[in-house]
């Protein structure tokens, strides 16, 4: 009986040591990056019955956990946040209509939280460059939808760049396209998010 207990204890210790020391290389290889708000640019573009428009996100943040030690980089965490009331078009009236449509009294942020990497492949013309598609939860105005976010990922020393664009529909998130001048100016339902973001350790 005692020999069986000792054998079980030895087995549990061996498993613990394997888990502890076996995961050390993975832990060391994975690196944490933070989105640099002062670099890069995130814009939202769209149309209206009067003219095309663009809004720039002045406040953005995020976290990225990346392991670049293998043949292909492995992304285990990607979270991206935009403060809604930092979206600026250069026109106060349009900004106010945007904030009203997105209900910023209750929903202050737009967030993307990655669930999994759908695909990743090297870009032949770029050193340390890859095409990647991430599946995640995108939350706008309090409503969350699963979306596929495509981007180019470039690793340059202690910096990582994510660049791409994603078409969306406001109504898919329960947002009524803003109107102005008693409804005579109407915004189109389809928008496009352009992102060129820089992440540093």
Automatic annotation (TrEMBL):
Domain of life: Bacteria
SMART domains membership: YceI (SM00867)
InterPro entries the record matches: Lipid/polyisoprenoid-bd_YceI, TTHA0802/YceI-like_sf
Regions annotated as coiled coil: none
Gene3D superfamilies: Lipid/polyisoprenoid-binding, YceI-like (2.40.128.110)
Name this protein carries in UniProt: YceI family protein
Domain Lipid/polyisoprenoid-binding YceI-like span(s) in chain numbering: 32-200
Originating species: Flagellimonas sediminis
């Amino acid at each position: 009986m005692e020999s069986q207990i000792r054998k079980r204890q030895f087995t549990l210790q061996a498993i613990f040591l394997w888990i502890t020391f076996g995961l050390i290389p993975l832990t060391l290889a994975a690196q944490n990056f933070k989105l640099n708000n002062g670099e890069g640019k995130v814009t939202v573009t769209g149309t209206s019955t009067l003219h095309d428009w663009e809004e720039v996100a002045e406040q953005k943040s995020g976290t990225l956990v990346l392991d670049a030690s293998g043949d292909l980089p492995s992304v285990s965490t990607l979270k991206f946040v935009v403060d809604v009331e930092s979206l600026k078009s250069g026109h106060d009236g349009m900004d106010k209509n945007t904030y009203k449509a997105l209900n910023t009294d209750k929903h202050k942020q737009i967030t993307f939280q990655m669930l999994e990497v759908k695909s990743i492949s090297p870009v032949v013309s770029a050193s340390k460059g890859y095409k990647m598609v991430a599946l995640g939860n995108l939350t706008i105005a309090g409503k969350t939808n699963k979306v596929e976010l495509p981007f180019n990922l470039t690793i340059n020393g202690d910096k990582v760049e994510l660049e791409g664009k994603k078409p969306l529909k406001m109504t898919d998130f329960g947002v009524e396209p803003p109107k102005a001048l008693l409804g005579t100016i109407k915004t189109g339902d389809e928008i496009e998010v352009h992102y060129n973001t820089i992440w540093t350790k």
